[in-house]
Amino acid sequence: MNRVLFGILETLKNAIKLANHDSDFTGAAMFVLAMAFLATMPGCGRSLFSICNNCPPPHKQTQVVYTANAAGSPSTVSALTVDPASGALTAIAGSPYPAGSGSMAVTADVSEKFLYIANATSSNISAFSINQTSGGLTQVPGSPFVAEAGMNSIVSDPSGLFLYAVTGNSDNLWAYSINSSTGALAPLSGIPMGIATGTTSSFLILDPSGKFLYVAVRGSVSSGIYGFRRDTTTGAITTLPGFPVAVNGLANKGTFDRTGAFLLVAATDVFGTAGGVEVFSLNGASGALTLTGPAAQVGRDPSGIVQAGGSVYVPNTADDTISGFALNLNTGALTAVSGSPFPSGGRGSVNGPLGIATTQGGNFVFVCNASNDISVFSVGSSGALTQVAGSPFPEGGDAPSAITLILTTAP
Fold first, then answer.
1. Residues 356, 283: contact at Cβ < 8 Å?
2. Over the stretch 340-397, which tens digit does the pLDDT of each residue have?
3. I need a labelling partner for 210 at 20 to 30 A (CA). Which of 143, 238, 289, 349 fits?
């Protein structure tokens, strides 16, 4: 008899004897019995005690970068795989894929089965299913779905059942249910919903819990943030008291830190023509936002904001740079990273960065540039950015205006 199995059976015999006298040992006896049974099984069960010869291969994970390309007729979405070791990008066969016109924003559902593109000129939202092996895209039935001119920001909720979008042409908020099987969109009741008369929307964002939704709007000379409580079952939203919260300058983009404790907002014209980042603490119970301190200065026309590791990065379109800050997760304070701002790395005379994304682990940062390429940076322990070999990489589209990264998992 196999020595391992013999030892297990001996232990089992002793455990059962003890169980007859003390019921506390019954659970242990059952556990050991299960182990003895697995030890006799062929294939994967044997991996507990020997090499598994018949187990299925491990799942393959592929990181894919997608960009929404605003120019062209039609506009397109590009798809490129990421080398996990070097950060180098390789275009997926078939990329770029046709979308609507004026593709300005991109997001994926939480399951990363579907990708959505907000089309500002064609007044709709393109929806694609994501091939879980290659990362390639196929438009879902019914796509594109009706929206409004000027669509410029889009986000999916943590359940993957709802999608929200806003437009730079009005104060309207759009909300849709997502068909979890097909990816198709259906407007929720009462949509679109007006936010603040006389304003236009610049971005919207959900807190990581999905309980609260925030929309940044612009007036003629100022901007603010409106807050909403979200019904996580129906997707419906209701206005929160105490809003709007004022934002210095003209709010462009926002992100929550990975803990969900702080909302960071990048805005133009905060320090004269230079932009700034303001940090708001989130009350997780009420949804209230409170400014934590003065704004941190960035470059001109900040067009995005992302957290990678313990640092925050802001691409500055007009300066061709990326501002980097260390984020204090206790106070929300921002401290400039040594060497910041960093060159954004695009090619050509018109090469300003237009969007920014990062890997899940925060080891690489990706910036899409007006020069129709993507700069890739490795993130150092100090937060400093270093372009990887071969960067920038051609992205295949025209005027990439937004970028996101997903992780596909295939057998």
1. no
2. 999 999 998 889 999 999 998 899 999 999 999 999 999 999 999 999 999 999 999 9
3. 143
297 and 171 belong to one structural domain: yes
Indicate if the pLDDT at residue 147 is higher than 80. yes
Q: Enter the pTM of the model.
A: 0.84
Question: Crossing angle of helices 3-21/26-39, nearest 10°?
Answer: 160
112 with 41, same domain: the answer is: no
Query: Which residues touch 403 (CB under 8 Å, ≥6 apart)?
Result: 65, 66, 67, 68, 106, 355, 356, 357, 366, 367, 368, 374
> Is residue 402 a part of any domain in this protein?
yes
Both 144 and 239 in one domain: the answer is: yes
- Total domains in the chain come to 2
d(C-alpha 409, C-alpha 270), whole Å? 42
**Quick one: 325 and 264 in the same domain?**
yes
Same domain membership, residue 406 and residue 343: yes
**Are 14 and 157 in a shared domain?**
no
**What tens digit of pLDDT does each residue of 251-299 get?**
999 999 999 999 999 999 999 999 999 999 999 999 999 999 999 999 9
* Pairwise CA distance, residues 151 & 155, whole Å: 12
Please report, as a single letter, which amino acid is at residue 179.
N
Own/partner pairs, 158-162, CB within 8 angstroms, 24+ separation: 158/110, 158/206, 158/208, 158/209, 158/210, 159/110, 159/210, 159/232, 160/109, 160/110, 160/111, 161/235, 162/188, 162/235
Among 116, 80, 77, 81, CA closest to 98: 77
